Fold:
Amino acid sequence: MAVYHMVWIKFNDGVSEERKAEHMAALNGMKGKVAAIDSVVAGENFTDRANGFTHGLIVEVADRDALPAYIQDEHHVSVATPLKEDAQLMAMDIEV
Structure:
């Protein structure tokens, strides 16, 4: 069963629009660089229903066994580490 890793992103005050765009490009650019990823989408929220979270990420991996491979992948870590410095993150994983 496929697993969807979802991340809500709330950028810290003072993070520029340019920096936010760099983070989104890096997240969307993980496809093809992280072997465990089947699909990835990242973008800006357009509603007021997310309690201040402004951006989101959805990553699809094949199954539960693939999730640790994605999370521990060197390229994923290189994208996630600076994002964690610039934003508050909330994550959830579901299996469908």
Summary: The mean pLDDT is 98. The chain is about 35% helix and 35% strand. Helices lie at 17-28, 66-72, 74-86. The CA atoms of residues 1 and 87 lie 30 Å apart.
